[in-house]
Amino acid sequence: MGALPDQKTNFQLGLLYFAHLLVMTDGEVDHREKEAIYKIKLQENIPDWIFDDFQENVLSQTEQQTFKKGVELLNRCSEEEKLKAFVHLYRLTEVDNSVHRKEVRFLLYSLKATHVAFEDVELSAKLENAVVIKPL
After folding, report:
1. What are the residue boundaries of the structural domains of the chain, listed by start?
2. How high does pLDDT run on average in the chain?
3. In sequence order, which residues have a C-beta less than 8 Å from that of residue 34 and are 6 or more positions away?
């Protein structure tokens, strides 16, 4: 990735960096977490080349380098994009049916580093889950 990433790429890569760190915090990557990351890839239209490049690069980075890169990328994003990324991460904590203490700590630490309020993430996640009843 020689060229500077555009705004959308910053969002996509920042989200991938944080999702990777989040699923690694409890020491186990559950198959449901892998499936959830794949669904995020599809929902956010993350191209295969970005996803594959990310997976290759993240293996050679320390946890600290990965976190720093994720913060750097998300802090280049709009407030709406950051919020959207953290809604994905919030949901990702619940995918394996157990919210691990380390995942919560990581999420709170990440929110602080990117200046996003937990209450905004929680409310946005709940609003997205709300069922809209359409008239017949």
Report:
1. 7-129
2. 87
3. 23
* Single-letter residue type at 65: Q
Q: Could you tell me if 93 and 104 are in contact, meaning their C-beta atoms sit under 8 angstroms apart? A: yes
Long-range contacts of 96-104 (CB under 8 A, 24+ apart): 96/30, 96/32, 96/33, 97/32, 100/25, 100/26, 102/25, 102/26, 103/22, 103/25, 103/26
Alpha carbon 49 to chain centroid distance?
Answer: 18
Question: Position of tokens 């919210």?
Answer: 99
Distance CA 91, CA 59 (A): 24
**Residues 6 or more apart in contact with residue 36 via CB below 8 angstroms:** 91, 92, 95
pTM: 0.86
Alpha-carbon span 3 to 29, nearest angstrom: 32
Topology given in CATH for the domain delimited by 7-129? TerB-like (1.10.3680)
Location of structure tokens 């991938």? 16
- Answer yes or no: is pLDDT of 133 > 80: no
**Which residue, 20, 27, 11, 10, is CA-closest to 92?**
20
